[in-house]
Specification:
Layout (H helix, E strand, L loop, with lengths): L2 H21 L3 H19 L6 E3 L11 H9 L3 E8 L3 E6 L6 E3 L5 E3 L3 E2 L7 E3 L4 E2 L5 E2 L5 H6 L10 E5 L20 E3 L4 E3 L2
Parallel strand pairs: 1-2, 1-7, 7-10, 10-11
Antiparallel strand pairs: 2-3, 3-6, 4-5, 8-9, 11-12
The structure holds adenosine-5'-diphosphate and magnesium ion.
Length: about 200
């Protein structure tokens, strides 16, 4: 039995069922849950005030981070967003001009100008997350972008805190990680704050 393939299939199955469920969220439900989740995260980590935050532009019914982004921009706090780079790599970029966003090949907005900020220079990075297994390992969309992007900082002192903002149904009561998967430090949902480190 090839256990690598077994876990790959298990991950695919969880990915599909969670995304299917997330797609059924209505607009007002999404907005109410997002508010609660952002409030929980802000109470826990002061995301509206920390110096350097990795964020993203929410798509496909992800927890809506727009309020957080807007508060931080008004305060001129450094906030970065993912950009897809060649060879399935990515960077986090602090956009110069939010009017100059453009859509990438996954149909997600990304900065078209601005400075790269190294992973290690972030205090906190919010990682787009499809599921979180019972040990805190993150299930993503299947591209492995953040796994590769963060690999080099995982063992460093003073590495950024890695967090996920998810709905309760995205917690997976199972152990499904592969060796390359990143473990999240804290995950906030509408009902829980779970610390894994
Ligand atoms: P996701 O993290 O988006 O859920 P996976 O963990 O399934 O996706 O990873 C997708 C692909 O990326 C896998 O084929 C995996 O081998 C590759 N990958 C992930 N992390 C690394 C890494 N650190 N080095 C090389 N390949 C990696
Ligand atoms: Mg992974």
């Amino acid at each position: 039995m090839n256990w690598f393939l077994v876990n790959t299939n298990v991950k695919t199955t969880y990915r599909q069922s969670i995304l299917q469920k997330r797609n059924t969220l209505g607009l007002s439900e999404l907005s109410n849950l997002s508010k609660t989740i952002l409030r929980n995260a802000d109470l826990g980590l002061n995301l509206t005030a920390i110096t350097t935050l990795g964020s993203y532009f929410s798509v496909n019914n992800e927890v809506d981070l727009a309020t957080l982004t807007n508060i931080r921009l008004k305060k001129n706090l450094l906030t970065t967003f993912p950009k897809v780079e060649p060879n399935h790599s990515m960077s986090l970029i602090a956009p110069k001009d939010f009017k100059k966003l453009r859509k990438n090949k996954y149909d997600i907005f990304e900065p078209s100008d601005g400075d790269k900020v190294k992973p290690i220079d972030h205090e906190v990075i919010i990682i787009p997350t499809v599921g979180v297994d019972k040990n805190g390992y993150r299930l993503g969309y299947g591209g492995g972008y953040y796994d590769r992007f963060l690999e080099s900082v995982m063992e460093r002192n003073n590495r950024p805190l890695l967090i996920g903002l998810i709905y309760d149904f995205q917690f997976i009561d199972d152990s499904i990680n592969e060796s390359h998967d990143i473990k999240l430090d804290i995950v906030f949902s509408e009902q829980q704050s779970k610390k894994f480190s």
